[in-house]
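Here is an idea for our session: we take a single protein and study its fold together. To get us started, please write out a protein record for me. Start from the sequence, derive the backbone structure tokens from it, and show both lines together. Go ahead whenever you are ready, and we will take it from there:
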Amino acid sequence: MFTGIIEEVGTVTALRQKPQAMELTISCSFILDDVKRGDSISINGVCLTVATHDHKTFTADVIPETVRSSTMSELRAGSRVNLERAMPVNGRFGGHFISGHADGVGIIRSVKKEANAVTKTIELDSSLMKYMMKKGSIAVDGTSLTVFSVGTNTVTISLIPTTREDSLLGEKGTGQRVNIECDLLAKYTERIQQTDKPGMSRNWLAEQGF
């Protein structure tokens, strides 16, 4: 589980392509202080498992489903990536619940400067729009953000200076693709409604204020 508060920007130092899969080697410093084999690290919003590591780098495997549903296939040696370690049980919850399982890829359609903020409008697949609501949560390349407006097939987010300085999202411009994870609670609520079991029906949820 992650919170969407980027800890460090790392660099892909090696990339080994496999049939429909990949192996990444990423150079970083801060997050390696306590890393262990088997730890979970979010890379541009995608949860991957540490396979090997030393004091400068770690490697992780990317399975075919992750390649298909994210921007991982676009990485190259030299690519910079957002990094976040899994949240410790006693950690501060600075963002929102993020699983690191990308729901799809969005495309940045416009960028606008407004005072000390930069707003970006992102086009999403129509299947993801049902999870979007004004002032709701969204993870973009692993960064926890608030949805400020919702269009027919777009959402607009706003980046404060700290977010632009501490993550890569501020650098991305029109036409670039980003990993999207929808709000986890919205997806669970939808799944509960779909099961429509006695005692947990659509009507029951409505009566409870959901």
In short: The domain at 104-188 is CATH 2.40.30.20 (Elongation Factor Tu (Ef-tu); domain 3). The first strand starts at residue 8 and ends at 18.
